[in-house]
Amino acid sequence: MQDDAPGYLLPQPDTQAESFTEAEAAVARLERLYAEATAHLSWHFNQAITTGRPATRVRAFYPEIRLTVTTFGYTDTRHSFGHVSGPGTYATTITRPDLFRQYLIQQIGLLIQNHNIPVEIGPSSTPIPVHFAVAGNPGVAVPQEGVLDFSLRDVFDVPDLLTTDDDIVNGTLTRYADGSAPLAPFTAQRVDYSLARLAHYTATDPGHFQNHVLFTNYQFYVDEFETFARQMLEDPASGYTAFVATGNQVITRSDAMLQTIAKLPQMPTYHLKRADGQGITLVNIGVGPSNAKTATDHIAVLRPHAWMMVGHCAGLRNTQQLGDFVLAHAYLREDHVLDDDLPVWVPIPALAEIQIALEQAVADVTQLEGFELKRIMRTGTVATIDNRNWELRDHSGPVRRLSQSRAVALDMECATIAANGFRFRVPYGTLLCVSDKPLHGELKLPGMASDFYKTQVSRHLLIGIRAMERLRDMPLERIHSRKLRSFEETAFL
Fold it and tell me: N or C: which end of the chain has fewer CB within 10 A?
């Protein structure tokens, strides 16, 4: 059916779905359906802004993937993903197939290969909110309610938080209203919501994000990351092709200039890119579990292969020295920001692949091995709290709990990042650096930590980068292990 937008078809929710046995062709149709739908909405939205309220409601729909399995027959389950557990219909809505092209080809390809049946691609019955349809157009801004002489909600679909949630990853939604089961961990609306938030919080386009993400809580690490990135751009053999700074500033030469941003975003983000997306992203999340949750809530929709915290912590043992490293193998969660999504009784296991990569990276950078490595690194429980001034409390409370938990360090972010990694099925890890020892009189006061910052930040960041490079060389099925998968899992990573 041709509508009045020149050159575009009006997508209909009952359009015939097409079957595909080849992943690239399936993704090509997803891209075409999405492009037609968003072009339709954008055209009508611009018309509404310039000429007034449309005569009828304007809608377009996300494309979807469907898979119907009719047998309990054996499939290759050596991977923890890429297959469904039994007969039934499985579906997911899709947004921005251009951004997720390689991911979709990979995941659809595994489904076709493992079940030896086609996937169906067609429009869904889920409308695209107009805000998300025009989000990629810098020349279009959606006005606030009340600016226009009509309500947007009377004409266009708008974001609906009643259907934009984490019920799939939280395990509280196992079937849609039509009886189908989720095929992917996030719906299209949830992905679109986070893509918009990421652009806002990080001041970089989501398309720049790489598959390996480092989180930190100090600007010092950002400065060192830029220095490292420029060194890599000097070396054609490094495999790194570009560095992206806040404000989507892209450089490909080591001597290229970057402008100073007058007003940094809430979470300044930087990307050392590779052509295959296997580079490294660094996010300065600042201090506190709320920021840590916010960042990981949104980055999770990009389906990174790993994320790690490389930040500062309080050492809790008198035997530790400023500058020592702490490799977390357990977490005491007193951050409280995830209690409703992931109860505190849920264990957050250490992931062997991440732990080994971090320990080997420490050994590589420090040139210490075995028993000698214990001089500068402790492995143990890390406590994450939401009270920065916890040491001012009656020590019979928090200090006793810390001792009973066998904690060796305390911070305000890492358990949140690990717990959200567990919740979102993103491999996670933590390597902290001791910057103060409040229980032993070494408080973080002006001037006391200057030498520490000068000598340790560069080495600490390099360890995080080397660990990520080790993980990059690991087969995907090895790092995405069953330890992060529940009873009824989505087929997509």
Answer: N
